[in-house]
Description:
The structure holds two protein chains of two kinds. By secondary structure, chain A is an alpha+beta fold. Among the domains of chain A are: about 90-205, no CATH class; about 470-645, no CATH class. Chain A is about 55% helix and about 20% strand. Chain A has a six-stranded mixed beta barrel. Chain A has a six-stranded mixed beta barrel with strand order 13-14-18-15-17-16. The radius of gyration of chain A is 34 Å and the shape is elongated. The mean pLDDT of chain A is about 85. Chain B has a domain at about 5-85 and about 150-215: 3-Layer(aba) Sandwich (Rossmann fold), CATH 3.40.50.300. Chain B is an alpha/beta fold. Chain B has helices at about 40-45, 70-80, 95-100, 110-115, 135-145, 165-180; strands at about 5, 10-15, 25-30, 55-60, 60, 80, 150-155, 185, 200-205, 205-215. In chain B, a hairpin with a 2-residue loop joins strand 1 and strand 2 (about 10-15). Chain B is globular. The chains are: A alpha+beta, B alpha/beta. The interface between A and B is medium-sized, with 33 and 37 residues. The complex binds adenosine-5'-triphosphate and magnesium ion. Magnesium ion binds next to helix 1 of chain B.
Amino acid sequence: MRMLDRKLLRNLATMRMQVAAIVLVIACGVASYVTVLTAYRALKQSQEAYYGRYRMADLWAPAKRMPRALLHKLEAIEGVRRLEGRIAFDVAIDLPVLLQPCSGRVISVPHRHRQILNDLHVVRGRWFTGQGTREVIVDERFADAHGLDVGDRLRVIMNNKKEALTIVGLALSPEFVYLLGGGQVIPDAKHFTVLWVAEPFAESVFDFDDATNEVVAALDREAVVEDVIARFDDLMTPYGALGAIAREDQLSNRFVTRQLKRLEGAGQMVPITFLAVAAFVLHVLMDRLVRTQRTQIAVLRAFGYTTGEVARHFLKLAVLVGVLGAAVGCALGAWLAGGLLGIYKQFFTFPMLEFGADGTVLAGGVLVSIVFSVLGALGAVRAIARIAPAEGMRAESPPTYRRTLLERLRPLWHILGSAPRMILRHMARTKLRAAITITGVALATSLIMLTLWARSGTDVLVNTQYGLIERQDMQVRFHDDRPRSALYEIQHIPGVRTAEALLTVPVELVNGWRTRRTAIMGLEQGQALRALLDRDLRHVGLPEDGLMMSRKLAELLGLEVGDWVRARVLTGGRQRLRLRLERIVDEYLGVFAYADLGRLSRWIDEEGVLNGALVTVDRRQIETVGRTLKELPAIASVTLRSHAIASFEETVGETQDVTYSVWILFACIMTFGVMYNAARISLAERQRELGSMRVLGFTTREVSVLLLGENMLLAVLGLVPGIALGIWFAWLLAKAGETDLFRWPFVVHPATAFWSVICVLVFGLLANLLVVRRLRSLDLVQVLKERG
Amino acid sequence: MSKTYDMGEVQVRALVDTDLDVGHGEALVILGPSGSGKSTLLNLLGGMDRPTEGKIWFRDDELTQLDTRGLTLFRRRHVGFVFQFYNLIPSLTALENVAMATEIAPNPRDPREMLDLVGLGERADHFPAQLSGGEQQRVAIARALAKRPEVLLCDEPTGALDYSTGVVVLDVLRGVNRQLGTTLLIITHNAAIGELADRVLHMGSGRIVEIRSNEHPKEAAEIAW
Lengths: 788, 225
Ligand SMILES: Nc1ncnc2c1ncn2[C@@H]1O[C@H](COP(=O)(O)OP(=O)(O)OP(=O)(O)O)[C@@H](O)[C@H]1O
Ligand SMILES: [Mg+2]
């Protein structure tokens, strides 16, 4: 077989450009597989290791205030393995450099370090000294964002008193891998952080002697979480329980887990698309190779080589292509995985995110690559068996063409010149190949569309949410319920233009077995700062009575307009209400319910109260207003809209730009690979034909147009289903990507389709021009000397 | 003119200092052993290739001065080619193959008439795969003629055909030369075909060895081999 191997290498050398194009497409597939799976496994392993080593809790149970003595009763609940009480409060942090007050969550930990649930990974500094009075350990991300370090002071408004705390350590916790403050949609380490203080200090600051307001628990492996939650809620209700939360519903964990799942999904779909396209293109190439080498194969068979031996020889070529693609793909993937992980690191923080080339993933990449290559070659190789030793010796008669269906339309056909006729008949004869090219182009188009759509979705989301729905400059939250006069105070701050009352009441909505914890936002009739819009962006009036909710919330609860829903108020009087769903609004961020503010305050038996405000400010005085608001101890947090927009675009937008550029590049390579091979094979097959046209006096340009015309026609035919497919994918992704935090707007701009088409046409044309260039050096004499 | 193929170490002198005049409307047959430079000569005359040395004129135009595009236009306007292996476009019917040539010619002939001329009017709608070798060759001739060329160059037009089919094809070619006044150059290995010609050219080792004039050219049907 030594000579056969040499022949194999020569074949490979003559087809090197085509092989390279296929190798590139395979490489894209393998690279996306390796990238995504390496990142996935690294994140998954980090998550598991982090949770394990730092004892991530299984259950969180917040309440208003409960005696520590209750902990013993809770600990006795079946299924509870371990349990700890802690004190946790939302606080405002006062940083002179920051215009808007930033908020934080204070959590108490034992003053002497011992192993606890949700343990801290101390990055720098140390644990507390003595009772830990006025000492704080802050989240490392917050310290980094502000250039703070151990020894620095931090002013925190705790229990309405401003305390100057000394930072003794910087730490991370498994509870906050994905760190999201109240009202935030994406992490913003600059304006939200976790602060850990020593228990004795927390007790004295919050007047919580021998009391706690949050329990975290680890459960037995076989514990039934729902039952445990029910028991917790029972025992804790007298103490103002807000309802226990299982790990799977814990904000950070839920988000990380969901993202990992999506990543895993992408790690399968995208590579398969690329590898399938590569396999099809390889099929076309191998098919052509076997056909042109019919005589050679017949000679080999005549010499006494078995069909199996000859088939193996051709399969070797496919395996080689697969291995080459895998090699390039693995290298590229390993490199890109670092980048992808870097992006995830912006959102998810693991103390020990170890990244290295993952042997299993690489091996998997090589394996799938070879499998798809062999699958691609199989059809052509099977044809070898059908070549009889004697048959190959006969010359092939001219390829048989038939009239196409289109020719039935006589008048139309007659206006076509020879070139279009040749193109159409050729396409009709090589239907499978045409179909493969069209499919490849369609998939590439849809991939680009999908990517561009997702990117434009971010803009739509930002524009709608922050341009149309949220119209305030600032949203203020008070620490507790206030009388209406609080609103007047804000209105009188110089620079404030308008302030509208807001009453946010945390509730659990229940419809049969479906429950959802959210908040009812009470707004005043005639308010102007929160636009309530339907799907077509038309204003929906706030109902006088009953509830209004975002479509997603209604969906999650299985509600339709007119249905009744039960609501358990989670604070204050803990009322139980039965409310009618009156209207539905469409929103992209969060899941909220709305009600008339007056009505809502009566439902909670506190007529006329409010606990927040939506504020518009004179643009030039934003700073002054911010500073003044900071001074007010009653205010728990202030959120600037402009800041929310900026951070959204910065984090989400920039991240998308990077990842999406890679996807688009890959899709363009796919277009190139498909089109280049189609063009090369077309050229090879029609060399004589084009040569005789040149002899007749057709110019190179005229002949090029013929070749270009055929391939670009295929590309155009692929664009149409590609766009449709892209829209469908976008719809699927929009559906699949719906969470209670985000909804991706399913709005497809014509520009999305336009740029996808441009990408595909440019790369398709590029591939074709590279091939058509060869026509210039076509040796006419040589071409025509050979027999047909 | 001369044509030398540079093959690295060896140089193949395909055509050596050859000088030739072809008259308008003449029928010329080129004979010679394999490798003697017949095709090379024909390709140079037809503007398919360039000589290494020397000059070629078509009327007052010097072909050797033309660039690739100029040569293409020369072929387009003045030359028809017929090859041993027909080289029809398999995806076009007989009529369409002929019509295709007329699309680029300034003053073409009617494709249907050309098919009638070669006796294939009935087979106009057949694809090459549905035609015999001789029929394909006749379509190729019709295609070459449809452009109304002044010169028809044929490289072994009967090489792939049997005797009687060959006679039909030669008859067509001779008829074209007589009736339409097209200058005709035919390469062949078959000395008998020389009897059709006004002049017979013998080549050997890249040179013209002998030129012989025929006082009384015969009809295709009269010759035998
Ligand atoms: N492209 C080429 N490269 C190198 N040598 C060539 C090339 N084409 C022709 N030759 C050489 O030039 C010489 C003349 O070739 P040509 O094709 O003109 O011969 P011919 O008389 O037409 O022969 P035949 O009757 O076999 O067709 C031959 O020795 C041939 O080997
Ligand atoms: Mg020859």
